[in-house]
Design brief:
Elements: H1 2-14, H2 16-20, E1 40-42, E2 47-48, E3 51-52, E4 56-59, E5 67-69, E6 74-81, E7 88-93, E8 98-105, E9 107-108, H3 110-123, E10 128-131, E11 138-139, E12 144-147, E13 158-165, E14 171-172, E15 188-196, E16 207-209, E17 212-214, E18 217-219, E19 223-225, E20 229-239, E21 245-246, E22 250-255, E23 258-264, E24 267-268, H4 282-288, E25 292-294, E26 315-316, E27 323-330, E28 336-345, E29 358-359, E30 365-369, E31 372-376, E32 385-386, E33 389-392, E34 403-406, E35 417-421, H5 429-433, E36 435-440, E37 445-449, E38 451-453, E39 456-461, E40 465-471, E41 477-480, E42 486-487, E43 492-498, E44 504-511, E45 514-515, E46 519-521, E47 524-528, E48 539-548, E49 553-561
Parallel strand pairs: 18-28, 19-28, 42-49
Antiparallel strand pairs: 1-4, 2-3, 4-13, 5-12, 6-7, 6-10, 6-11, 7-8, 8-13, 9-12, 13-14, 14-24, 15-16, 15-20, 17-18, 20-21, 20-25, 20-26, 22-23, 22-27, 27-28, 29-32, 30-31, 31-35, 33-34, 34-40, 35-39, 36-37, 36-40, 38-39, 41-43, 43-47, 44-45, 44-48, 46-47, 48-49
Length: 562
């Protein structure tokens, strides 16, 4: 098997056409990675917060620990162990130029699991990103490689499955590889929107149009617009035969029978996945939880292989005639829905005016207030913004600056921007060392330890909202679920982590002076008893050291019997 594998690998690298023939994906080469029928909870390209969904989420019937199987012959080329993201993941490189990824796993197969555990103890580090050579862990098609789970950034038991181009590392749409997933349901359209494109899609924003359904045909009444330069967007979902809302695969947008825009989601690189924010109405998505996809390109949206070149989707109405609009939505199986309506320019309204703090897409700009400097790169914005930044007093006793209002959390940022804030008083070096910048964007907060440049605290962020400086003197801590010195008969130890400001960025546990492998599950830390602490081993001392975002360190000691 190994000789055959190496020969095949050599052939693939010689015949680069196999790797590069992106429009001729092998059919039925990859098998279902589960032993139950493939049912989708999410498809490739579905809209997520700040990213496209980059694979298939396969349902595991709300269960964990189902066998996960290699989709084809190959070798384990990489594994990841991380708190969020993929959790526990396996990457298998195949001789036909593709790599498959299996994520949110509970456990690897025994030999691989033992290798990873030994590496964790050697490094004294739970999180890992390990690459392997072809001969280390070869696998056959259908071989069990792991058990399914709910680890990392998973909201429920399932298997996340990807197919990537090994050479470019682009994620490819797995539904193009011939998996037998029944689907005879056409995409469902629930809304249509138009935008005045003389300034920006953000101002004044979406104008809603009612949609009526008859079978797979959809209509809307005549759309009368007040701008000669407009674009449209569609609210729609796809469905397979088992209920979940899926993302739209392909859309064509025509006016008077002429194609003016089209997108198709065949492949995306992780470096580009955040461009989702330039493909959707971000304000509606964040504020109203509505997935609305633009049928046009925003000026700062530079996602490759998404929309057809030279078709911007922006309509310039040069008359007051009635024009026919047709929007065609298709899934991978070819199930099709159509929406037809008409558009007409009525009395033209005034154009939105810009201010001195306008930030244009594809242009770098620095915005200042009395005690703040916000530096945006040329790749920061998808569309123009009349950026509003100002300061207001903050009542938090730990705050050492005004609250800085950074426009609105409902406007996206592609590139990280640099935020500088001057404190409202002279800080000592000790205080500076405990200072964090807090960015509140509504449903969550980001905490960054301040970097100091003279009297200015500096941090990098990729969302807007409100920001301030805090001096964080609070210690992180963990709490145990057992009484001191108690006999622990359960299968694991659970420690719950807390910190008032930021996050616990470092955790180290030592059992009787030796590093002990705890798994991190969100804010909790779990050790499953093994040979490091067997039953009947007597009394033990567990020393735990935690560090939070501000750099505050806390060491705690717990005792128990086993």
């Amino acid at each position: 098997m190994k000789i055959f594998y190496y020969l095949m690998l050599l052939v693939c690298f010689i015949n680069t056409g196999i790797v590069q023939a992106q429009n001729n994906y092998p059919q039925n080469y990859f098998r279902n990675p589960l032993n139950i029928p493939m049912q989708l909870a999410a498809n490739f390209g579905a809209v997520r917060t700040n990213h496209f969904h980059m694979g298939l989420d396969l349902r595991t019937n709300s269960q964990e620990n189902l066998p996960v199987l290699a989709a084809a012959e190959g070798y384990v080329s990489r594994i990841k162990v991380e708190r969020y993201g993929f959790g526990n993941a396996v990457y298998i490189t195949h001789p036909n130029g593709y790599t498959t990824v299996y994520a949110h796993l509970n456990k690897y197969f025994s030999k691989l699991d033992e290798y990873v555990k030994e590496k964790q103890y050697k490094d004294e580090k739970w999180e890992q990103d390990i690459t392997f050579q072809p001969g280390q862990f070869p696998v056959e098609k259908g071989q069990q490689i792991a058990l399914s789970g709910n680890t990392g950034g998973s909201a429920g038991p399932h298997l996340h499955f990807e197919i990537r181009d090994t050479k470019t590392e682009e994620c490819l749409n797995p539904l193009l590889f011939g998996f037998a997933i029944p689907d005879n349901i056409a995409p469902i359209i629930s809304g249509l929107y138009w935008y005045d494109r003389r300034f920006s899609t953000y101002e004044p924003g979406a104008n809603s149009i009612a949609v009526k359904k008859a079978g797979n045909a959809y209509t809307a009444n005549l759309v009368q617009v007040s701008s000669p330069e407009i674009s449209f967007a569609i609210k729609a979902v796809d469905k397979a035969n088992k209920g979940f809302n899926l993302g739209i695969y392909q859309t064509e947008f025509l006016m008077d029978g002429k194609l003016i825009y089209s997108f198709k989601i065949d492949k995306i690189h992780y470096d580009d996945t955040q461009y989702i924010n330039g493909c959707i109405d971000y304000t509606k998505f964040i504020r109203d939880k509505m997935g609305i996809q633009h049928l046009s390109d925003l000026p700062g949206m530079h996602l490759q292989n998404y929309s057809l070149p030279n078709l911007s989707g922006i309509i310039k109405l040069q008359d007051e005639n009635v024009h026919t609009i047709e929007i065609v939505l298709k899934d991978v199986k070819g199930n099709t829905s159509r929406l037809t309506t008409k558009v007409q320019l009525s009395k033209t309204s005034d154009k939105i005016s810009s201010t001195g703090k306008t930030i244009m897409a594809n242009e770098a700009k620095t915005i200042t207030t009395e005690n703040t400097e916000i530096a945006f790169s040329k790749n920061a914005m998808y569309d123009a913004i009349n950026f509003n930044a100002y300061e207001k007093p903050d009542t938090d006793p730990d705050a050492v600056s005004n609250t800085i209002v950074l426009h609105s959390p409902y406007i996206p940022v592609q590139d990280e921007y640099t935020l500088k804030i001057k404190p409202d008083r002279k800080l000592t070096n000790t205080e500076k060392d405990k200072t964090v910048i807090v960015l509140d964007y509504g449903n969550d907060k980001d905490f960054v330890k301040a970097k100091w440049n003279g009297d200015w605290a500096e941090g990098k962020f990729n969302r807007l909202g409100t920001a301030k400086l805090l001096i964080a003197n609070n210690l992180p801590s963990v709490s145990s679920g057992w009484a001191e010195g108690a006999l622990v008969n359960s299968s694991s130890l659970l420690l719950k982590g807390t910190t008032k400001v930021g996050d616990i960025i470092s955790f180290r546990a030592e059992l009787d002076g030796k590093w002990l492998r705890f798994t991190r599950v969100k804010d909790n830390f779990v050790y499953t008893f093994d040979e490091k602490c067997p039953k009947g081993s007597g009394s033990h001392t567990l020393k735990v050291t935690t560090i939070n975002t501000a750099g505050n360190t806390n060491t705690q000691t717990f005792t128990f019997r086993r």
